[in-house]
Amino acid sequence: MSWTVPPPPPPPSKPPIRTGRVFGGIGIAFGAQVVAVLIGVGIAAAVGFAGLWVEIVLQVLLCIACIVFGTLWIAHRDRGIGLGVLIGWGISVLVFPVIGIGVCIALINNQGTV
Questions:
Q1: Burial 31-45 (b: 16+ CB within 10 A, else e)
Q2: How many CB atoms lie within 10 A of CB 67?
Q3: What is the pLDDT of residue 64?
Q4: In this structure, is residue 5 part of a structural domain?
Q5: What pLDDT is recorded for position 24?
Q6: What whole-number distance in Å separates Cα of residue 33 and Cα of residue 53?
Q7: Count: domains in the chain
Q8: Cα–Cα distance measured from residue 48 to residue 46, given in angstroms and rounded to the nearest whole number
Q9: 54: Cβ contacts below 8 Å, ≥ 6 apart
Q10: DSSP state, residue 94
Q11: Owning domain of residue 50
Q12: Which of 33, 40, 47, 103 has its CA 20 to 30 A from that of 92?
């Protein structure tokens, strides 16, 4: 009886998730969140209370966009970026809107005083 070398294991079906790509996706989500907050604050400074509603609408649109694009990136492209977008949105939605809405309310309250 002769001994044979077993075949190598099959290669993984998907490449590994790279940490740098995850951080890149988090950066993309943070950048989009900053833009959304700045637009809401800018409109609040210009027109008042409507800026708060614009901020809320922008947050809903950003949520939908991050879920759609993050899921598509995970399923069809780079899983690290898709995962990073979802993680980044989850973190940034807790931090940036609170800051933005607080600034909007402060601008609305101080609108009559200069």
A1: ebbeebbeebbebbe
A2: 13
A3: 93
A4: no
A5: 94
A6: 16
A7: 1
A8: 6
A9: 39, 40, 43, 44
A10: H
A11: 41-108
A12: 47
Residue 97: its pLDDT value, please?
67
Residues of the chain with pLDDT under 50: none
Q: Which two tokens stand for residue 6?
A: 């077993």
Query: SS3 helix, strand, coil % of the chain, rounded to 5?
Result: 75, 0, 25
73 assigned to some structural domain? yes
Give the tokens for residue 50: 């409507």
Whole-model pTM: value is 0.71
Contacts for 74-78: CB closer than 8 Å, 24+ residues apart? 78/21
Cβ within 8 Å of residue 76, ≥6 positions away: none
Query: Is 28 within 8 Å of 81 (Cβ atoms)?
Result: yes
Nearest alpha-carbon partner for 108 in 47, 30, 66, 33? 47
Q: Look at residue 71 in the predicted model and tell me its pLDDT.
A: 93
Residue 2: inside a domain, yes or no?
no
